[in-house]
Amino acid sequence: VLGLGSELQKWTEISAVLSKITPEEDQRMMKLPYYVSVKAQYLAQIGDKEQALKIYHQALQSNPELMDLKIDYLWFLIDVRSNNLLKAALNKWQNLLQTDIRFYPVFASAYIALNQPSIALNLYRQQAEKEQNNPAWLMNVSDAMKQMGRESEAARIRQAAWIKVLKALRDKGSSKLSKTELINLSRIAMTQAPGDFSVKTINELSRYY
């Protein structure tokens, strides 16, 4: 329930569930990365970013072996723009890139957030074989190139991503696109088709919130 509520940003429902969890249950569930992530996201949503960070830090100290928890923490730092903590975490966990490919996307996004696009682009290239048909990945590569001043290359990649999301739209229709597909479509439409089309896709996405 918590995981689904977080995905759909149903914060009232999440609050109701969290309020029913006993201290003993909370302590036991703090070993579950998704629980820590949802609880921290909820706290940040209601304006208590410091408590959210405290929860992550306690969980990481108690469960240093949980890679998913570290990945969630990095995404959280990107979302709340805690750049100093983000830099520290990247430096501390740099060696994990050599042993766990799941860290590639979040490390790349972190370097984009820190305005270090050349490092991000290098990480994106290492994902190319697996992700080259993923519109979200293409847009991330485009963002990195744009930050580097390679605007013409960035524009070509955005166009390639645009073609892919339009194909999904033609094949399925907007009402049957998944949330991820609608997010991709909305993100790309803001640069490739600003105006009524972009507004329409954002309105379609609103059904998930």
Key words describing this protein structure:
single chain, 209 residues, disordered N terminus, mainly alpha
- Mean pLDDT level: 83
Structural class: mainly alpha
Gyration radius (Cα, Å) is 19 Å
Determine the fraction of residues in helical runs and give it as a percent range. Answer: over 70%
Quantity of strands, as a count: 0
Distance between the termini: 15 Å
Global morphology: globular
| Biggest sheet features | none
Order of helices and strands: HHHHHHHHHHHHHH
Model description:
The chain has helices at 2-7, 11-19, 23-29, 33-45, 49-62, 67-80, 83-92, 103-113, 117-125, 128-131, 135-147, 151-172, 179-192, 196-205. By secondary structure, the chain is mainly α. The protein starts with a helix and ends with a helix. 29% of the residues are buried. Mean pLDDT is 83; it is low at 1-8.
Task: Write a brief structural summary.
Helices cover 75% and strands 0% of the residues. The chain is mostly helical. The N terminus is likely disordered.
List the helices and strands and how they pair.
Blueprint: H1 2-7, H2 11-19, H3 23-29, H4 33-45, H5 49-62, H6 67-80, H7 83-92, H8 103-113, H9 117-125, H10 128-131, H11 135-147, H12 151-172, H13 179-192, H14 196-205
